[in-house]
Amino acid sequence: MGFPTEFSEQIHLLAAQFGDPVLHHAVLPGNRNIHSKSRIAEVCMVVRNIQGKIYLMRKPFYPKGIFRIHTGGIEKKETIIEAFHRELFEETGLLEPQPHFAAAISYADSEESEPSFFTFAFITNPTDQELISHDDSEHIEELRLIDIQDLPNLATQLSGIGIQYSKDADIEFQSWGIFRSVAVSQIYRFLTR
């Protein structure tokens, strides 16, 4: 499956400026995370420290021990790279002029259906800056660092979350974890190709 014109043109321009990403199409039958009334796409921000380890984050309502890579929605009339810069600053306080374009992912309910959601992942250059959220509504509770080789374990952990529901956040974590694991797997694919 391809990307809609609004994104395929941007992907081409971003690849020319920030490198060729991994392209991936994921089929997630019945996964409500790929059907959002408020947004159809997100950016994924893979933030690395100076040793090359990757920051993960967690929010208070996540299941015990669950962390994930930073993501944020692309707003209407915002380009992919504008969303990356805005979300990166809001969630981490970082400014990154030259990220690496790691992955462009489309999601659909079936092989026959059109994609209904998209993730665009970028990797920052290593930083020794302290990460500071500038958006209190994010409710980032804790950060953790992992090695690149631990990304497959993270994907397995996320895709293996049992049936759990957060009424406060209106999240069903089993399907959420499966959805979140896709980007982790593709980021690992990019970093090890």
What is the class in the CATH system? Alpha Beta
Strand residue content: 15-25%
- Oligomer state of the chains in this structure: single chain
Summed up, the helix count is 4
CATH superfamily: Nucleoside Triphosphate Pyrophosphohydrolase
Order of helices and strands: HEEEEHEEEHEEH
Strand sequence of the main sheet, in spatial order?
1-5-6-2-4
What's the CATH topology name?
Nucleoside Triphosphate Pyrophosphohydrolase
Work out the helicity level.
25-40%
Could you say which overall geometry the principal axes of the C-alpha atoms support? globular
The main pleated sheet reads as: 5 strands, mixed
Q: How many individual domains?
A: 1
Tell me how many strands there are: 9
* Separation, N- and C-terminal Cα atoms: 22 Å
Class per helix and strand makeup: alpha/beta
Integer-rounded radius of gyration: 16 Å
* CATH architecture heading: Alpha-Beta Complex
- State mean pLDDT (0 to 100 scale): 94
